[in-house]
Amino acid sequence: MFYLGAVLVCPMAALVVETGHIGIGVALAAVAKPAALSALRMSLVLVVIALVANALVGTFGAIALVRHRFWAKGLLSALCDLPLAVSPVMIGLAFLLLLGRGGLLTPLLDTIGVKVVFSFPGLVIATLFVTLPFTIREIAYVLEEIGQSEEEAASTLGASPWQTFFRVTLPNIRIALGYGLLMTAARTLGEFGAVLVLGGSISGQTQTATTFIQDAIEERQLPDAYGMVLVLGITSVTLLLGLEWIKARRQATTTGKALK
């Protein structure tokens, strides 16, 4: 408790106290400014894209890793964890060298007329990279735990692969899917390094909520910064409560199956 208080509670308490000195109403009013709303809207758009992409890739990627055998399975599994081991700033720099001015793919991008760096596609690429592991790993753990007995029984009874997926597999992984997507949303909202390097934090274009906070601090616009921090803090707490609720549901479901 002392350790958690030192590294988590005290800094958050200091932030709340400082925001109180400025005035919570003043801080929240600052978020209503056009630049702040634009940055917040950009973050929410990235959250939606990350949720849709990870719902699809996470679900079917986990099924591929757990239920199928292929020659590059070990390598693919390791690559799924790469975003957890690599610094987001390093990720942004790597994509910058690949897609930026003078990058390896610059001639191709110029030919088809697509701009990635310092534009919206760069933000999407950075976000999808850093959020890749969360949903796919949560679902993979559950698939390994429940085994294949129910899916094999459905197949034996004449169910097609898609019928088995929607009636057997998906209901079994729905809690893990929800847990992974909530973590994906939280990670997207909090991402800073990769989106800063690839997006450049251009106000009204590639500025996200987190890069808005840095820009506001550098410009000594503290009410703007604290207001955005307050909004992100409330959102993070809400997501945390959602994660705890899903965790309780998972434990209850596991206990119920064990009793049966």
Descriptive notes:
- There is one protein chain.
- The protein has helices spanning 2-22, 24-31, 34-67, 73-80, 82-85, 88-99, 106-112, 120-146, 149-156, 161-190, 193-199, 209-218, 222-259.
- The chain has 260 residues and is an all-alpha fold.
- It has one domain (25-259): MetI-like fold.
- Helix 8 (120-146) runs antiparallel to helix 11 and helix 9 (149-156) runs antiparallel to helix 10.
- The two termini are 37 Å apart.
- The model has no long low-confidence stretch (mean pLDDT 87).
Concise overview:
The protein is an all-alpha fold. It has helices spanning 2-22, 24-31, 34-67, 73-80, 82-85, 88-99, 106-112, 120-146, 149-156, 161-190, 193-199, 209-218, 222-259.
**Tally of individual domains:** 1
The count of β-strands is 0
Nearest-angstrom radius of gyration?
21 Å
CATH secondary-structure class: Mainly Alpha
**Annotation field: number of helices:** 13
Which of globular, elongated, flat, extended, rod-shaped describes the shape? globular
Distance between the termini: 37 Å
Low-confidence stretches: none
- The quaternary structure here is single chain
CATH architecture: Orthogonal Bundle
Q: What is the CATH superfamily classification? A: MetI-like
Strand fraction = under 5%
Structural class: mainly alpha
CATH fold label: MetI-like fold
Helix content: over 70%
Average of per-residue pLDDT values: 87
What's the SSE pattern? HHHHHHHHHHHHH
Main sheet attributes: strand count, strand direction, barrel closure: none
